[in-house]
Each structure stands twice: as structure tokens, then as C-alpha cells.
């Protein structure tokens, strides 16, 4: 919506960005909690690396299917809040339930339900942000929201959760992870607004805020959607093969202590936070495609550093911060490019589709494959799988059609919200 020539800081655009930042950040902290707590819970529940991969995978499968289903439902309803608020409560309560799991089967079932509740958060949150973002800040706003997985999920997460597990138990780690989500449930309940409810009657009449059944095939006829699907598979292979096994790799292969692993993981998380919004900000100026190509190739380095460098904690923190710049790619291929390739009413569906395909293969299949590879060939195997995913993603990024408004205006092309179809 147009905010007028003067835009004070305390406006709803910034408010919705902050609400979605914290909501998604706490979701991802909870998602990664089992990875950070695995060195603590594995001996207690007698789990191996393949079972860790399966726990990560089942959540990813349910996350993927749920994200697409509820993202599309929110498009048909024309409502984001009515879906986001109840699922925020659900994933918070399920975090507490994870802490009482007594065996592999219970852990698997609870994490599956967790995936159902967490999957829709990103598509719905980003659709809400896109609806209230000014054109010049679209990439930054959406990147900032997604960068929460770095600051909250990957920086504060390992520090807080490993501290709780060391001082108390791994059960306490899951209890701690569930508290912030409960807080955000009440924040969203009282402060989140629907974009269409804040429009004037004239604006509402001109806008298309609700998806119709006959509109649905347009998503599949859009060039950029197909390439973002491929990149999602590859970059989620990088993300989940790397993040699922990096903590265990640091402890068991590089022989850092659990607390040192937490510090190094936190530094990596800080890097994913910084680059997670800096990359999309750069793309607002340079364009989406060149930024996506650059940071995909940088992502190749993060797993290779763990394989070939065994330095001090300080050195590993610096290298982890710099090489986790690959996180800059995720807001671009998952949200910004699909969102700009279609009109706003498709955003929940498009983002949910890209997330679903990427999660089902890169997030669900590959952690199990990486876990089996680790059991058979050693812990470096998942790192090589992650590096390969990022490298091929960089090649695929050359085929993306530019959507950044600043680049399109320079070329005199159509508005980015008009679908570029096959």
C-alpha cells in the first residue's frame, strides 16, 4: 500500500516485517533444535546418524506438504492471519511435547506433526510482508524476514539450546525452544492486520487479493517458477545436508567440544543472518539473477571449510561467518523471484510450491541420503553432498529471468508483477 511521501519508522510496513521476522526465526530455531541437541539426546535414546537424518526428513516432508496446502488455502481465503495465528500456537505446544519423547518412534511422530504446523509459516508470513512492502524495499524486507533463521535459529539457537542441555538436560532444550512461539502467538493475535482490511473501498475494488480456481494453472506456466523449483532442490540439499551434520561433524570429526561447537555454529548463524538480508538488499540494486549466481557459488565453500580447515575456534568462527553467505540465496529463489514473477494474489501458492518441492527432495530425501552416506563413508560425505548442491545451483541461476523492478525499469520492460510465462 502507498504510505504517502513521508514514511515514519513506526508504520505498519516495519511492524509486519518485525512480527514475521521473529515468528519465522522462532520457527526455525525449533526446527533446528533437534540437530543442535542431537549430540545430547542420541546416547540417551540410542540413535544413529541415519535416524537423525530420518527425523530431519520426516519434518521436512510434512513441512513441505503443509506449506503448499495452507499457503494455497490462505490465497483462496484472502486471509493470512486466520491461518498463521493458530499454527503458531500449535508448533509452540509441539516443541514442549518433543521434550518428553522417550524413543525414536515417538520422536519421529512428534516431529512429523511439528512439520505440519511449521510448514505454512514462511509462505504466509512472506505473503503478508510482500503485501505491505514498498517497491524499493521489497527484497530487503523479505530477505530480512528470512534472515531470522540465521540470527535466531542458527545463532541464538545453538547457544541457548546447548546451554540448556549442558546445564539441565536435552529435554529442557525443547521446553526453552517452545516459549518464544507462545509469545508470538499473542503478538500476532492482537497486532497483525489483513492487508485487504486496511484498504479503502476503491483500492479493494481495484486489487485482486483472493485466488480463484481458474487462476491456479498460471503458477505452472511461469518460466521463473520452474527454475526456482530446481534451485530450491539444490540449495536445500546444501542447507540440510550441511546444517544437519555440521554440529556432529565438528564434535566427532574435528573433535571440538559441545560448547565449542555451539560457538562455531552461532558464528555461522550470525553469517546467515547478515547475508540473509544483505544479499536481497544487494539484489535490489544489482538485480536478482547476478546476486543469486554469486552467492550460490560462495555457498560451496562453507562445507569445504569444515573438511579442510581445522583451526582455532576464533578462525572457524570467522570462516563460518563469511562462507555461510549462501543463505542470501534463500529469500531470492524461494520468495522474492516467485513473488515478483506473479501478481500478489499468487504469492502464498507460489512460495508454498517452491518450498514444497525443495523440501521434499532437498530437505526430506537428502538428509537421509546424507545420513546413510555418513554411516558408510564417514562424516565428510554430507559435506561433499552439500557443496555439490550449491555448485549446480549457481549454474541453474544463470537461467533465471530478471524480476528486480530497478533492472526492469532500466530496460523498459513490463512490471515485475506481470507473469513471464513459458
In a few lines, what is going on in this structure?
By secondary structure, the protein is mainly α. The protein has 18 helices and no strands. It comes from Alicyclobacillus sendaiensis PA2.
The biggest beta sheet is recorded as: none
Derived structural class: mainly alpha
Strand content: under 5%
How many strands in all? 0
Fraction in helix: over 70%
Keywords: Membrane, Transmembrane, Transmembrane helix, Transport
Transmembrane segments: 16-38, 50-71, 83-101, 143-166, 172-191, 218-241, 261-278, 290-307, 313-334, 346-369, 381-400
Subcellular location: Cell membrane
Main location: membrane
Keywords for this structure?
single chain; 422 residues; mainly alpha; globular; disordered C terminus; transmembrane; MFS_dom
